[in-house]
Design goal:
single chain; 100 residues; mainly beta; Thrombin, subunit H; 0% helix; globular
Length: 100
């Protein structure tokens, strides 16, 4: 019998996620507006983010300042301050002093 809160369904992710605490930013509006977030777990294909920002578009750039990478993401799900994203591009390295 599944534990309380467990749906009993198997995890459908293609890649296992690793725990993370990466300081990041959701970049919107052609890089003029951003919202702070934390990456709570991450894999090669996606991540779970935590943010207090309101409504988000279906696609945005995720700048990971801890790993110094950026990638285009698609919003897959949202539950309050937590959201899941799928990486549409491979994370690409950037320097902190360069434009996103």
């Amino acid at each position: 019998m599944p534990a309380a809160g467990d749906t009993g369904a198997a995890d459908q992710r293609e890649q296992p996620r690793s725990h993370a605490q990466d300081l990041s930013e959701i970049i919107l509006d052609s890089r003029r507006h951003g919202h702070a977030c934390m990456i709570r777990d991450i894999s090669e294909l996606g991540a779970r983010l935590e943010t207090s920002c309101g409504e988000l578009p279906k696609r945005f750039i995720l700048a990971n300042y801890t790993r110094r990478t950026k990638t285009l993401c698609r919003l897959v799900w949202r539950d309050g301050q937590h959201l899941g994203v799928h990486f549409l591009t491979t994370p690409r390295a950037f320097r902190i002093d360069e434009g996103l």
